[in-house]
Design a protein that fits this description.
Distance between the termini: 27 Å
Helix content: 40-55%
Number of strands: 5
Largest sheet: 5 strands, parallel
Strand content: 15-25%
Strand order of the largest sheet: 3-2-1-4-5
Low-confidence stretches: none
Shape: globular
CATH topology: Rossmann fold
C-alpha cells in the first residue's frame, strides 16, 4: 500500500496540493493519505502569565483543525483513505521527522509563493523539507 504525506496549512496552495494528490492516487486502490498540520510552538510566557499549557494546547488543536478542514473536505469528497495528524514544532523539521517515522513513500505539498527575494531571506518550509527527507517531494504551486 502506498502512503503519501500531505502537509497542509490552510492556504490555497495546500488545497491545490490536495486536489493534485487526489488525481495522483486516483486509480490506486489502497493508497493511504496522511494529512498533517504542524503548528509552530507558542511560548506561553510570550503571551501572558495567565495562559496555561492546557490553553496553549487547545489553541494549537483548534488552529490545526481549522488548517486541515478544507483539505479534509476535499479528501472526504473523493473517498480517499485518510488519517489526520496534528503536531506542534518547527514545521519543516516536524514534517521530515513524521515522514521518516511513518515510512511514507512520498510527500505532496503546496508552496506559498513568497517570491524569490523573501524565499532567499526567510527560506521556505518546502525547501527545507526537500533537504531534510529521503523520499520524493512533489511541490504544487
Amino acid at each position: 500500500m502506498q502512503q503519501l504525506l500531505l502537509p497542509v496549512d490552510g492556504s490555497p496552495s495546500a488545497l491545490r496540493a490536495t486536489k493534485f494528490l487526489i488525481r495522483l492516487i486516483g486509480g490506486q486502490p489502497g493508497a493511504q493519505v496522511l494529512l498533517l498540520n504542524v503548528q509552530p510552538a507558542i511560548m506561553v510566557k510570550e503571551i501572558s502569565v495567565n495562559v496555561t499549557i492546557e490553553m496553549t494546547n487547545q489553541m494549537h488543536e483548534q488552529a490545526g483543525r481549522d488548517a486541515i478542514s478544507g483539505a479534509r473536505e476535499v479528501l472526504d469528497a473523493s473517498a480517499a483513505s485518510c488519517t489526520e495528524h496534528l503536531l506542534v514544532g518547527d514545521p519543516a523539521e516536524t514534517i521530515a521527522r513524521f515522514a521518516k517515522e511513518e515510512g511514507v513513500d512520498g510527500i505532496v505539498m503546496g508552496t506559498r509563493g513568497l517570491g524569490s527575494i523573501k524565499s532567499l531571506v526567510l527560506g521556505s518550509v518546502a525547501t527545507k523539507v526537500i533537504h531534510l527527507v529521503d523520499v520524493p517531494v512533489t511541490l504544487v504551486k
